[in-house]
Every structure is written in structure tokens, then in C-alpha cells.
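Hi support team,

I submitted a single chain yesterday and got back a structure, but I'm not sure I'm reading the C-alpha cell output correctly. Could someone confirm the output below corresponds to the sequence I sent? I've pasted both exactly as they appear in my results page.

Thanks,
R.
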Amino acid sequence: MIPTEEVIEATLEADGTLRLSHQPQISPGPVQVTIRTIPAPSLRRGLADVLREIATDQRARGFSGRSAEELCAEAEEQASDDEDRGRELAAARHPLGP
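Hi R., thanks for writing in. Yes, this is the structure output for that exact sequence:
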């Protein structure tokens, strides 16, 4: 069945012609055209935009995040754990023999 109506996005050129986004799927013949403006597509958000939005939302909910001191302490603890694990792995690879 051939459709009798189709919505196609198009661009109105300065000379009055329309540049259609794709070929219509309706039968050739007389048609009625309604032109309605649509919002221009927004620029694609990047990672920095998303992170800013998250930070803004969290601040609005009263979440302040961890302090620099807390982050440094966590990093030091993780580094210490990594060193301990590295020693354990080294000992397992080279066990002390009798």
C-alpha cells in the first residue's frame, strides 16, 4: 500500500526551493505542502558538557563531593595497596627455596 501522507524534513533555500532530506515514498501527482519551521539541531554535547551538568545537578542536591585531602588520602592508600600486592606477586613468582 502506498502512503498518502509523509512528513519529510527539508531545508528552505534562499531562492524558495526545498531541499528534501530523502525521496518521498508517495505516488507522483498533485500534493499539498505545509512549511513549518523546526528548531535547529543543537550542537552535540561533549564529555565536558556532561560533566558540568552532573556537577551542577549534584551541587543543587547538596552533594559537595570529596575534598582534595580525601582524594589524596585515597590515592595514597591505593598506592600502598598496589605496592603490597606487587610484593606478594613477586614473592609468588620467586619463592624462597630450601
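A quick pointer for reading it: The beta strands are 10-12, 18-20. Let us know if anything else looks off.

Best,
Support desk
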